[in-house]
Amino acid sequence: MVRTREHTAKRFGTILFAAAFAIGLAACAASPPDRAAALSGPMSIAKQGSFFIGGHDVHSDTLSTLPNYAASGTVTVDQMYVHYQIPTGAKPLSLTLVHGCCLTGMTWETTPDGRMGWEEYFVRKGYPTYVIDQSDRGRSATDISAINAVRSGKAPISQLPTVFAASHESAWTIFRFGPQYPQTFPGEQFPVDAQASLWQQMVPDWSPSLGTPNPTVPALSQLAIRLGHTVLISHSQAGIYPFQTAAISTQGIAGIVSIEPGECPSATGDLTPYTRLPILVLFGDYVDLSPRWAPRLKACRAFVDAVDHAGGRAQLVLLPDEGIHGNTHMMMQDRNNLDVADWILRWIDTHVGAAGA
Question: Is residue 8 included in any domain, yes or no?
């Protein structure tokens, strides 16, 4: 068979392209050397524990409708549960992880398919790491007196608290696993084979009954002041909380990383507190395909632009623009979650490490 020079050149070009593509895939699949070191061997913890912060006492005559428990008395509500791990030789900067809607601090602990979560990874990378359960969620107490007041006939049914739960079907599209349940987006990174483990993590959400700001916000302010130098890393529903916390006081807040916030502060509001902090607003993939998230991205972009024009140091990043593709709303649990974690840590090292303290 006779091969022309043009045919040979095309074939050689194809081989080169294939080789380059294979090398690129290998590079993407390979873990950074420092990650390999972080993942290997036992974790050395200098201190770990938990505590509560915030909250207030409430006296009520409707604490119980059971005969064996007194209906009248005083309880503490709206406090925030905090679990922490401090590695040996810890960095001076800590990270505080704030979960979103219908979830608890479990969001950050382990992925649905059993891989390492961001909490452990950040500790292995040397950061003191604090994981909260939002006020009135998980291990943080809720005021149930309004429910018992209605149950006992002391209050009208209209005074029942508003509580909701996100169904599997609605969470599927909210979390951008696909355009509709149970379809998936092409190339998405969430471990859908372990989907049932995510559904087990989800809990009822009391936030519509808690007012604005959510009680988590003043508790976060107290926590930041107590820690002295912490980056507030929030997600989804809680994405706005670090900004609301900074509006109370920026004391103790070294920076804000807001992951796919359900809301950003208004671009036309008082931006003064936000000009004092390095801010990252981070979105994953498929955002433009979501009627829920595309408008939020647009509003957050306007906020970031306004902060920059006011002299601040805010940045909005889409992971696909950084070469990281396929991330859902639950990027901390996606199959490439440690790629995202490393990207965030590089941002923190660059923007907070030099600017904090």
Answer: no
Please report whether residue 20 resides in a domain: no
Question: Following DSSP, what letter does each residue of 113-147 receive, concatenated?
Answer: TS-B-HHHHHHHTT--EEEEEPTTSTTS----HHH
Report the 10 Å Cβ neighbour count for 315. Answer: 15
Indicate which CATH number applies to the domain containing 122. 3.40.50.1820
The closest alpha carbon to 338, from 25, 28, 21, belongs to: 28
Task: Name the strand (E) or helix (H) holding 42.
Answer: none
Closest CA to 141 of 83, 81, 97: 81
CA distance to 19, 271, 300, per residue, from 160 (Å): 64, 36, 34
pTM above 0.70, yes or no: yes
Q: Please count the residues of the chain.
A: 357
The answer, yes or no, to whether residue 18 has pLDDT greater than 80, is no
Q: Does residue 14 register a pLDDT over 80?
A: no
Looking at the predicted structure, is the pLDDT value of residue 68 above 70?
Answer: yes
Q: Is the bond preceding residue 208 a cis peptide, omega within 30 degrees?
A: no
Domain range for 244 = 33-351
Structurally, how many domains does the chain consist of?
Answer: 1
Residue 347 lies in a domain: yes
